[in-house]
């Protein structure tokens, strides 16, 4: 394939994946919300009439209970009341063990409303960055493979390497892949430096780059530190303290995917001018989504 066909394949394929990822998150987010409301409704209707007042009082005390409420919540999560015998739950007043089963249902419904979105958004974040890195890999392979002169500065091969390939095209593809993977294995700041040094692509002119940059480092925190800011993240992102749990929501994911789409568009336009290949209109599915 020609350079413009290889680039088109990379842009179309990866922006399409981002588009469907965003639609997936949108749909699952709605489902989680609806399921949360349904579970809470089921909880309300499951409480026997003779226990309603006591359950309401418990919940009132629970949400005003501070540290004590946290202690009870941890105990309930660790082991449901139905498996702990007749033990009573005590704040300032005592409650009958009969309400334990219904309180557990409430706690479980509450936890699902919190944890499910956390799992969804964390997964969406890590996958969004993975798609971006995969795009950049394929895009650079297309450039290096179709414009071998861009490989001259750093790529080299032994006679054994050269003789192991059946054609010059296969060798160039191997060198292009090796070079592209070497670029993307670095952190995003070094990737940006490499794009500027080798191709005069200045990310500072892309005002939303800070969003993509933060998301890249956030991904590392989510994967390696449970979403809690560490020294490395705080060294890269200003005005953030160590030990803070990062919160990600649908708006964050939506903004991130749009910014990735905009970055891809800007990169494609820059290289099209520099490498003189034809761009296809509306090939970026994030910026030109199909009708819903």
Structural notes for this entry:
The protein is mostly helical. It has one domain (about 5-275). The chain is about 70% helix and about 0% strand. The chain is elongated, with a radius of gyration of 27 Å.
Features:
292 residues; 10 helices; 68% helix; 0% strand; elongated
Précis, in short:
The protein has ten helices and no strands. It has 292 residues and is mainly alpha-helical.
SSE map:
Layout (H helix, E strand, L loop, with lengths): L2 H44 L5 H12 L3 H12 L21 H47 L12 H5 L4 H17 L3 H12 L9 H17 L5 H6 L13 H26 L17
Mean pLDDT across all amino acids: 85
Helical stretch tally? 10
Unreliably modeled segments: 81-91
Based on helices, strands and strand pairing, what is the structural class?
mainly alpha
